[in-house]
Specification:
The protein has 191 residues and is an alpha/beta fold. It contains 10 helices and 5 strands; from the N terminus they run βαβαααβααβαααβα. It is 58% helix and 13% strand. It has a 5-stranded parallel beta sheet, sandwiched between helices. The longest helix has 18 residues.
């Protein structure tokens, strides 16, 4: 299995980039892997309902384990396939990692190993907020975007701590095709 993980804040172009990258290199695009478990009809409504409840839970041990289980489930389900994912363990850690739940990440990394490359798509907070407002002035992620610099540093911290090959790509002045071109250049360097 080859796995390329695309990480970043909402509004940096993760999903669009994942789809384009997967198409260009012939990998399968995986978004929200637990929806394959919770939604039989191909939709993601049940997963979204469960994820909202999980995310509102103050227990970060629980949230970190929930998303780690999603990654473990995904690796079992797509064993032997090449995949591009919209988020993986670095995002999980950035939002749910604490000094008390390092063992969750230790176990997940022990079971899964590192992706071929973790790509952290970066944009400054003001660019993210502008993009989110462009989607909807009431986008729930606008408030979360204000934490972006802290979240990005935690993603990098995770990759360094677990020796994940990673790269940070600033998407603030790139369209999705340019972003994919930059990722392909990085993949060549990491082979």
């Amino acid at each position: 299995m080859n796995h390329i993980s695309i990480e970043g804040m909402d509004g940096v172009g993760k999903t669009t980039t994942c789809r384009l990258l997967a198409e260009r290199i012939g990998y399968k695009f995986i978004e929200k892997p637990l929806h394959y478990l919770f939604d039989d009809d191909g939709g993601i409504e049940n997963y979204q309902t469960i994820a909202r409840k999980v995310n509102s839970n103050a227990n970060r041990d629980f949230t970190s384990m929930f998303y780690a289980l999603g990654s473990i489930y995904m690796y079992g389900m797509f064993q032997g396939e090449d995949i591009v994912t919209d988020r993986h363990l670095a995002s999980n850690y950035a939002w749910s990692g604490t000094e008390h739940n390092k063992d969750v990440y230790d176990l997940a990394v022990k079971k899964l190993g590192a992706p071929r490359l973790t790509v952290i798509l970066y944009s400054p907070t003001d660019v993210i907020v502008k993009r989110l407002i462009g989607r909807s002035k009431d986008d729930k992620d606008i408030e979360r975007a204000k934490q972006s610099e802290r979240i990005y540093s935690r993603m990098i911290e995770f990759c360094k701590a677990y020796h994940f090959p990673y790269v940070v790509i600033d998407t603030s002045k790139m369209n999705p095709e340019q972003t994919v071109d930059a990722i392909l250049e990085e993949l060549e360097k990491h082979d």
